[in-house]
What does this fold into?
Amino acid sequence: MNRTTELIQAARKAMTNAHAPYSRFAVGAAVRLTDGTIVTGCNFENASYGLSLCAEAVALGSVNALGRLRDVEAIAVAGGPVDANGGVSGTGIVTPCGRCRQILNEAEQMAGRPLAIHCAAAEGDAMAEHRVAELLPFAFGPADLNISAGKN
Ligand code: ZN
It folds into this structure.
């Protein structure tokens, strides 16, 4: 299994733990660090809908809690609709929402390297690789506040 497939599989595994009773759309994310460590997250929805946390935010928040933002090199995102039996299926590729694109930009600035964003579906082989600059052109970031990348 290559490193990208491994990362997508980790995202899919995390996806199965999603707390998504409101959207019924489960998402998992997996972040690979430079030493090969994989940190995962899944969506954590809330009865007060606007407080819901996305998988990418949960995963990158955990990376931050580990003090490892500088070591991020890639992230995989996978997801799909939750069926009546609680399973997750679907072959449509999932991409990060707008808020998560901003969070990914922050992670990329702290890492100081272009991050690979691997987007996949809940199942199947379809996959798309993107860069943050493609997903969020003209991003607002630390430099706009005169904060140097890599300083936190
Ligand atoms: Zn999001």
